[in-house]
Write a structure and sequence with these properties.
- The chain has about 400 residues and is an alpha+beta fold.
- The protein folds into 2 domains: about 1-270 and about 310-395, Endonuclease/exonuclease/phosphatase (Deoxyribonuclease I, Chain A), CATH 3.60.10; about 275-305, no CATH class.
- It has helices at about 30-45, 60-80, 90-95, 215-245, 265-270, 295-305, 315-320; strands spanning about 1-15, 50-55, 105-110, 125-130, 140-150, 160-180, 180-190, 250-255, 310, 330, 335, 340-345, 355-365, 385-395.
- A hairpin with a 2-residue loop joins β6 and β7 (about 180-190).
- It starts with a strand and ends with a strand.
């Protein structure tokens, strides 16, 4: 049996000091030092074997955080882990307490193809793996062939189409050797709910951005555009997932979905939930009221749906632990989970041919408050996301 941990960590705008990432937004050297310190503490606490990072502007800044984490972890080991001269050094508790440095770990960084000049920067993604990578990581953002979503009026009339040729942020696909398996991991950060407002030619800004002339209808249209983009990006990711599943590869998908588990975009990624009994359902080619699928067809359809379905690690944990709530985001008084870890059925406890399963699910979210928490003096420095981690075990396969 092989155990490993895999985590998702939206760091919120990691970039070095005195660099304008968004307009008029920079870190002073002191602020950057505080952010680096906070991130190193979080990374040390997780001690995860695989970490999927979002909102990374610079690979060098992330490497600095990892180096700081290692320095602290090694110092902690020296202070708290007994050496072989102590008769109790083999106690299991010390294996649990020990930090494993990222020395020799592989780091893949995916810069954002939309990145611009200072003040107009766009963040990318990264994956850190103590297990290395089985092959070269793949970045998915600029699409070789644009996605055209055909639209239709009720009644069948053509309603045009929606086109996406480039994702708002990259998807980073890595294949990681763990035990005697290779697991495909997707790290993503889908389009946010922040409205997309169109700036007229020659104008300095979109009219909807002027809140002194508040335009509720125009701002709602901006939200609609953002939702269309997020769902189109989810569809692109879904197709990449299907390609891996159709090859028989176990899959883990994680990152900042910018939506809850039951949002349409999340359900596009995870796939449909099978109907309880398709024998109750009218056939697609029904000629009479009792033309329904057969029992054999019910089993065929159910397997076709289940084979490519992903499962929320959070919900598997809630089912196992009897907890009723996990949250990774707090905004406007609403606590919700918009950071997700999804698992293919290779890891589902009810699947008789599973290669492993999740033992535990943890979330670091104490810093998600109104700013009164001592470790989060204000939101600019601490992340506005909780960190989530799945504790996995793999069975040894013959």
């Amino acid at each position: 049996m092989t155990r490993f941990t895999i985590a998702s960590f939206n760091v919120k705008n990691l970039i070095g000091a005195d660099q304008e990432y968004y307009e008029f937004q920079t870190y002073t050297p002191e602020e950057y030092a505080w952010k680096q310190d906070w991130m190193a503490d979080q990374l040390l606490t997780m001690n995860a074997d695989i970490v999927c990072f979002q909102e990374i502007f610079e690979e060098s800044a992330l490497r600095d955080v990892i180096a700081e984490t290692d320095e602290r972890g090694i110092a902690a080991n020296e202070a708290t882990i007994p050496n072989k001269s102590k008769r109790y050094h083999k106690k299991a508790i010390f294996r649990k307490l020990a930090y494993t440095p990222y020395t020799g770990a592989a780091l893949a960084f995916a810069p954002n193809a939309n990145d611009g000049e200072p003040g107009h920067r766009r963040p990318g993604l990264a994956v850190l793996s103590r297990h290395g990578f089985a092959e070269k990581p793949e970045v998915i953002q600029v699409l070789g062939e644009p996605v055209n979503v055909p639209l239709q009026e009720l009644g069948g009339a053509d309603a045009g189409h929606y086109t996406v040729s480039k994702l708002s942020r990259p998807i980073l696909k890595v294949r990681i050797p763990i035990g005697n398996q290779v697991v495909t991991v997707f790290n993503c950060h889908l389009k946010s709910k922040l409205g997309e407002h169109i700036r007229p030619d020659g104008a300095e800004y979109a009219p909807e951005q002027d809140l002194t002339r508040y335009d509720p209808s125009g701002r709602a249209m901006g939200s609609l555009r953002a939702a269309l983009r997020r769902m189109a990006e989810a569809w692109v990711l879904r197709n990449e997932i299907l390609d891996e599943l159709n090859r028989g590869h176990p899959v883990m998908v994680m990152g900042d979905f910018n939506d809850g588990e039951h949002a349409v975009s999340s359900e596009i990624i995870s796939g449909e939930v099978p109907f309880k009994n398709y024998s109750w359902m009218l056939r697609h080619d029904a000629k009479s009221y009792n033309d329904r699928y057969t029992k054999e067809e019910h089993e065929q359809i159910t397997e076709a749906v289940e084979r490519v379905r992903l499962h929320s690690a959070e919900k598997l944990f809630v089912r196992k632990s009897l907890r009723d709530m996990v949250y990774t985001s707090a905004f406007g008084g609403i606590f919700e989970s918009i950071d997700q870890i999804y698992l293919s059925r290779h890891f589902h406890p009810d699947y008789d041919r599973r290669i492993g399963e999740m033992e535990y699910f943890s979330v670091l979210n104490d810093h998600l408050t109104d700013g009164s928490h001592p470790e989060a003096p204000y939101n600019k420095l601490a992340s506005d996301h909780g960190q989530i981690m799945a504790h996995m075990q793999l069975n040894h396969q013959d």
